[in-house]
Design brief:
The protein is mostly helical and 49 residues long. Helices cover 96% and strands 0% of the residues.
């Protein structure tokens, strides 16, 4: 029983860490993609005028 409890605890900790990593990676990805999208929108706006 105690061994099973340890496995459940380890698995829950791993899942929480994975979720945190996804959130951090998503935030970094957003900071990379946002300026690129803004530049593309400005270029499209300038060429359409």
């Amino acid at each position: 029983m105690n061994q099973d409890q340890n496995y459940i605890t380890i698995e829950m900790n791993f899942r929480i860490q994975l979720k945190d990593y996804r959130m951090v990676f998503g935030a970094k990805n957003l900071w990379i993609v946002s300026p690129i999208m803004i530049i593309i929108k400005i270029l499209v706006w300038l060429t359409m005028r």
